[in-house]
Every structure is written in structure tokens, then in C-alpha cells.
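Q: Give me the 3D complex with flavin-adenine dinucleotide.
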Amino acid sequence: MSLLYIFAIPALAAAAVLAVAPLRRRLISDRLLRVFLGVMPPMSPTEADAINAGTVWWDGELFSGRPDWAKLLALPKPTLTAEEQAFLDNETEELCRLANDWETYVLGDMPPQVWQFIKDKGFLGLIIPKQYGGKGFSAYAHSQVVMKLSTRCSAAAVTVMVPNSLGPAELLLHYGTEEQKRHYLPRLAKGLEIPCFALTNPNAGSDAAAIPDRGIVCRGTWEGREVLGLRVTWDKRYITLGPVATLLGLAFRLYDPDGLLGGARDLGITCALVPTDLPGVNIGRRHFPLNAVFQNGPTSGTDVFMPLDWIIGGPRMAGQGWRMLMECLAAGRSISLPSSNVGMAKLAVRGTGAYARVRTQFRTPIGRFEGIEEPLARMGGNLYMMDAARVMTAGAIDLGEKPSVVSGIVKYHVTERNRQIVNDAMDIQGGKGICLGPNNFIGRAYQQVPVSITVEGANILTRSLIIFGQGAIRCHPYLLKEMLAARETDRAKASRDFDRALWGHVRFVLANGARALAMGLTGSHWVRVGADVAPDARRYYQQLTRFSAAFAFLADVSMLVLGGDLKRREKISARLGDILSLMYLSSAALKRYEDEGRTAADKPLLDWAIWDAMFRAQNAFEGVISNHPSRAAAWLLRRIVFPLGRPYVAPSDRLGHTVARLVIEPGAVRDRLTAGCYLPRQENEILGKLEAALEAVVAAEPIEHKVRAAQRAGQIAGEDDESLWAAAAAAGVIDAAELARLRRAAALRDEVIRVDDFPPDLALAAPSRHVPARRVAA
Ligand SMILES: Cc1cc2nc3c(=O)[nH]c(=O)nc-3n(C[C@H](O)[C@H](O)[C@H](O)COP(=O)(O)OP(=O)(O)OC[C@H]3O[C@@H](n4cnc5c(N)ncnc54)[C@H](O)[C@@H]3O)c2cc1C
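A: Here is the predicted complex, encoded as C-alpha cells.
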């Protein structure tokens, strides 16, 4: 009886306090609000703009601990219109034929006729609506075009990508005045203007909001009249298309010291459109970014006067530049680098898969060695998942989303996985990948990867600061509400709002902790997926639901323990971001499997990608838990997240073997995996040669087996392949057609393993001098 009193009385008292809102607020919530205010990190207006920009999409579901899989599977599969498909099949195919990496490298630029083709065919206006003379393509179509170009010529891909990404056209579309739109958009769409966007300053790269470039509101003379304008001074570097731009999108901080606009003195970052023929604008010099020849260089100007209505959106948008940039960032970042990096990866996988089958050492195709199978499997699995994420994210943009956190996820993870793929391709190709020239298809990609890693939010920064940092605040169902309540100046409202968010949050944390523990103890077998999913992929949905609950719980405990310090604990934040990202990538891969009709032949690719992601996510969980500053929290977390230990293992060798075989085997799986890759039909181009060689080598394999069997049986003999084949033909082991097939395979194999050589002074520009040592067999 007395025991009952001991437990029941405090429990009833606590329940009474929690049930009576005013009491609960006064005794608990208001006190916690004061603590919250103390630990909440200060947020500058530029940080707030970055955090508030864009929309929360599937990332919000993953943060909820209970992703609604039916919602994911109901998303429409992105498709192309007939016009978009025709543009890919004709204009894009033709541009690929006209421009390649090696020639543009030798020339230091794309040839003038290629530039003209790009402008005339509307490549620079893919995202500009038809009413302004553009193509009005979907984000998915835009992505397909950039991806295809990236399988062929990085200069062409970047030149097309930049004007269609964050830059003048996108900013004008969203914020331009009608007059600005009517003047510039048709000119941009037709290629009459070459745009660039200049934000980066030598002193402000990652910390772009700190640009020292400045504009002063002042009076000045413009076309013979005194007008209100801006005197702008800037020093920018790394600006893509800058050296050839006719229209400079310029970001600078605007000040109004004399109060001429009637507002604040420091107005903030402002974006203007400046024709580059304006006296005082310096452009033309070039950087040389890792041998890439897309146009990139510095621009500067000192006290250059321009009218006020050159501000994008006119004077009313003075000081709104940072918000504009952050709001537009999601779309461009979701498309440009994910698409170009998937393109590079497709080229690497298609070409290297073929090479690994064609190249033999120790009388065996190198792709059949276990040591090579490992990177081949990684290449196939990574590409399957990267492409899935690219397509799903482009689809989100077409649905009207501006998924800012997701854009950071795909930018970071697709470029990092491409780096892995290209490195693997280099290792597999050995010296063939190292010696540059027209017969090397991977060396230029190897040089270009660091550019993708660095631009549009350098990767270390994106992983350490942005993905979880922004994700936690934006996607969390309660955190932003608590922060907004804490900032509320009306104290009564603050108390009410905070109380509501706080107790919702408490229930959320407890529910996720309990569910994570239950799913950990039961191996997630009883998780209801709640959607009609492929039976052979059902377990993956269950596991991801477990990850989602465990992640939400871990994130909350980490935020509770670390508070504002989490912002500085970048290693913890990065690993939390990794878990969120891996769940996103896995969702995309599962969606792809469904959208592509649950094709059983592709299943090993899905399996590899998901097992790898689960294993990596487990390591990221472990990294957060074992480095948690609170040992008590670490103890609790480990018991809730991994109550029975760590169950996930890396993809098995057997699975890796299956995936590697798919990568080196011509056929539908390889074609689907590398769909959209430009495939030159000519055998005097390296990829065309490789395709032909692969086909010929595969066709010759059974014939070779027959010859070897006859040799082992003592039926025929020969000193080398040719004499052995001749003997086999003479003995009737093979017929004349088979002999011809063996010879063709050998000739093509000989061609693809060759590398280029040059005169001693490496005079690459002399066309006659960089012809490969041997020509392709007929
Ligand atoms: C080829 C090329 C094309 C470009 N095109 C354009 C363009 O068209 N327009 C334009 O305006 N800019 C352009 N840029 C600039 C690009 O956006 C910047 O290079 C990028 O923002 C990084 O700045 P940074 O190079 O000065 O590196 P830094 O800012 O000096 O960063 C160096 C390293 O520190 C890391 N880092 C920085 N802060 C943190 C942090 N808080 N936590 C963890 N790590 C951190 C970064 O991730 C990076 O690894 C281009 C750059 C290149 C190389």
C-alpha cells in the first residue's frame, strides 16, 4: 500500500501539472524557454535567409521517424515531352558529335562553330519559358541534356549548364521587372547575350555573404542626365563564362550613406545585371582550372557608375540579393552538378566496363579478377544510386519544389560518388587512364572532379555545416517552431507557442526512441510499410523506417545535449547529415526500382547500393554515438539504436561479383545503367572503338574456348594466337567466319589498349602530331 503511495502520488502530481496548461507553462515550459534562449545559437540575417530558403520535401519525411512510403511511390516518374526527347536525340546528339574533350583541350576552347551551334540551337535558354523565346524545358529535360553532354565534352557541358543554373536568367525569371525580363530573356535564350554570375571574391569564397565588393547609392550622369545610381567596386575571381560574358550578373553589398533611398544605410547584398561593354568593367583574362577549357576568369571594376534600375528586380530589390540567391540555389544545385557528375560516371562505367572485359592479363580479362571486381561493383552500385537521386530530385523541381536540403545532399553525394567512380576507373585502366590524348576517355574527368567538389558550396562545408545544420532546423517538425516562439517579442504568445511546440517535441522524441528500440529488438520485421512495394525490396523499406526513427531520436538527443555547440561540432553534424543523406539516396534507389518496373535483372544493383548505404549509415550512427561528448547520452543512445549490436554488413563478395559481371557484360542492364551516354558509332573514336571491341571480344570468346579445348586435346598447336587460330581453321575446329571474328576481336583489342604518344616537345596543338600511333582495324 505504502509503495503505491510512493509512486502513485508523484505520478499523479506530474500528470496534473502536465494536463493543466497554465501550470505546465509556468512550472516547466517558461523555464525551459529561458534555457533554450541561452543555448540557441545566434543567427545572422544571412544565416536566417539561407535556412528559410526553399521547401521541405521528402527530407521532411525522413526526419519524421515515420516516412510515408506511399507518398514517395506516388510521385510521378519524370518523363520527357516529344519535343524534349527530339532535342536530346538531335541537337544534343549533334553537339556531342561536334565537341569532344580532347580537341577543346588542344584548342584551349570550343571551336567557333560549336559556340555558334550552342547559341543558335537554344542551349543557353533551356530554362527560359517559351513566351520569352526559350525552350521552356522541364528540370528533368535540362538534366538529361547536361548529363549527355558531360559524357562527351566538359567544356560544352559547363557552357550549357551555367546559364541554365543559378545566374541572370534564373534570377530574372523570379525577381526581374517585366521590362528586364522582356529585354534580356529573349536575348539570353537566343544566345545574343552570354551571361555569367559573379559572387566569389578573393576574400570571400565559402563565406560568400561576407563579400567586400561594394556599391554606393549616389547621383551620377547617365546618358547625359543626372540620375540616381550606384557606384560599384568589385574584385571577383573564378567566374565561369566571365571571360566571354556580355552580361555580368554581379553581387555586391549596397550602402546608402546619404539615405537617398530613404531606408537603411547598409542595405545588404544586392544583385545587378551589368553589360560588360560598360566602360570600367574588366573581363577577358582566364584562369586555367585543372586543364579545363571552359571559360573561367576574374572580373573587376572600380567605382563603375550604373543606373539604379540595373538592380535585378529594380530598386525595390536593393539589399535582397542574398535571399534571392538562397531561394534560387536549390533548383540549380539540384541539377547542374548532379547531372554533370552522373554523366561523367556513366562514361566511366560504360568505358571502363568494356575495357575491363577487353583488356587481358594472365590470359584473363582483367574484369574477371576478384581484385578488379571490387571496384567494378562499387562503380555499378554507386552509379545506380546516383542516377536515381538525380532523376528523383529533378522530378521534385518539376513538381514545384525548391528542396534546399536535398539539393545539398545530391550536390555533395553525387559528386563524391563520382569522385570514387572516376578513381576506380583510373585504377582499373592503369597506364591507359594516365596517358592523356584522344584515346584516353577518363583522364580529363579525373582532372575535372575537383572542380565539381569545390563549386556551388565546397563539399566539406556542405557536409559539415549545411546538410544537417539546415536540415535539422528546416525539416524537424518542431525545432523551427520552438525557435520562432523563442524569438517572439509578445511574451504571452511566445509562452503559448513554445509550450505547444515543446510538448509536441517531447512526445516526438519519446515515440521515436521507443520505436527505434522496438525495431532494433525485432529486426524491423513487424514494421508496416504502408505501400504496395516490390516484395523483394520490402525489407529495405522496413530497415529505412528503423533508420528514420533512430535518426530522429539521435538528432534530437544530440541537439539537446550539444545545443548551440552542435554548429561547431562539425564532425558530429557531418555524420548526422550522412545518415539523412544515405536515407535519401536509398529512397531514390527504391523509387527507381519501382519506376523502372521492378526489373529483376537490375536487382543486384539495387541490392548492392542499399546494403552499402545501410552499412555506411550504421558507421555514421556509430561515429556520432562513440564521439558523443556526454558518456551518459552515448550509453543510452547505443542501447536504443543498436540494442542487439550492429547488424548491417557491407555488400557481400558474391553480390559484388554479380554486379561486376553486369558492368562488363554487354546487354540491357549495362544499357539501362548508362542510359543517356553519348555513344559515337565511329570506330575511330575511343568510346566507339571500345564498344566495337567489347562486342567483338564477347563474340569471339566461345570460339576461343573451342580453340583452347582443341589445343589442350593435342589436336592443334601454335606458337602464338595467330598460328594457333590458323591451325584450328586448317583442322576444321573453326570455320572461316569464326577465324575472321577472332582476328577482328584481336585487332580491336590491340587498338583500345594503345595510348597516344607525342613529339618530344609535347606540341599538342599540331593536329598531325597527335594522331594515335595505330589506326583502327577495319
Ligand atoms: C572552376 C570554378 C568555377 C567557379 N565558378 C564560379 C562562378 O561562376 N561564380 C562564382 O561566383 N563563383 C564561382 N566559383 C567559386 C566557388 O564557388 C568557390 O571556389 C567556392 O565557393 C569555394 O570557395 P574557395 O575556393 O575560396 O574556398 P574556401 O572558401 O577558401 O574553402 C576552402 C576549404 O575550406 C572549407 N570550408 C570553408 N568553410 C568551412 C566551414 N565552416 N566548415 C568546414 N569547412 C569549411 C571548404 O569546404 C573548402 O574545402 C568557381 C570556382 C571554381 C574553382
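A quick observation: The pocket of flavin-adenine dinucleotide is lined by residues 196-200, 205-206, 238-240, 289, 296, 451, 454-455, 458, 460-461, 464-465, 570 (CB under 6 Å).
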